[in-house]
Amino acid sequence: PDVKDNYTYPAPSLNAVPDPAANLRPDIAIVDFAMPKMDGAETTRRIRSESPDTRVILLTTYSSPDDISRALKAGAAGVLFKTAANDTLTDMIRRVTAGETVLPQEKEVP
């Protein structure tokens, strides 16, 4: 199936939603890397522990190689800079849904 806007659950942090991945079991979770109380890597780890089939894409303005490494170790399927075009996000959703791990290209790094 193609990408559709089926469901959105905006939350300021993972703590704002009681067991979101456990309750919703989303195919894709799009998570901001810099959130209050818990960063994107820890949020990814928690989502994946509750819902192992959920593919997580982290959005960031800038992440160091160490941040990206932590995100991947936590189970992220992709990292995307917030400056990317909308069609880049759509393409990434398709690719991670197909099982790929997608990282920013060197030219995309701010």
Question: Which characteristics define this entry?
Answer:
three-stranded parallel beta sheet; 3 strands; 110 residues; single chain; alpha/beta; 4 helices
Give a written overview of the molecule.
This protein is α/β, with parallel strands linked by helices. The chain contains four helices and three strands. It has helices at about 20-25, 40-50, 65-75, 85-95; strands at about 30, 55-60, 75-80. A three-stranded parallel β-sheet has the order 1-2-3, sandwiched between helices. Strand 1 (about 30), helix 2 (about 40-50) and strand 2 form a beta-alpha-beta unit. Helix 2 (about 40-50) runs parallel beside helix 3. The longest helix has 12 residues, at about 85-95. The protein starts with 19 loop residues before the first helix and ends in a 13-residue tail after the last helix.
Secondary structure topology:
Elements (H helix, E strand, L loop, with lengths): L19 H5 L3 E5 L7 H11 L4 E6 L4 H10 L1 E6 L4 H12 L13
Parallel strand pairs: 1-2, 2-3
Helix pairs in contact: 2-3
> What shape does the CA trace take?
globular
Q: Widest sheet: strand order?
A: 1-2-3
What is the overall number of helices?
A: 4
Uncertain stretches: none
Q: Could you estimate the helical fraction of the residues in percent? A: 25-40%
Largest sheet: 3 strands, parallel
Number of strands: 3
The average pLDDT score comes to 79
Content-based structural category: alpha/beta
Distance between the termini: 32 Å
Cα gyration radius (Å): 13 Å
Q: Beta fraction of the residues? A: 15-25%
- State the order of secondary-structure elements, H for helix, E for strand: HEHEHEH
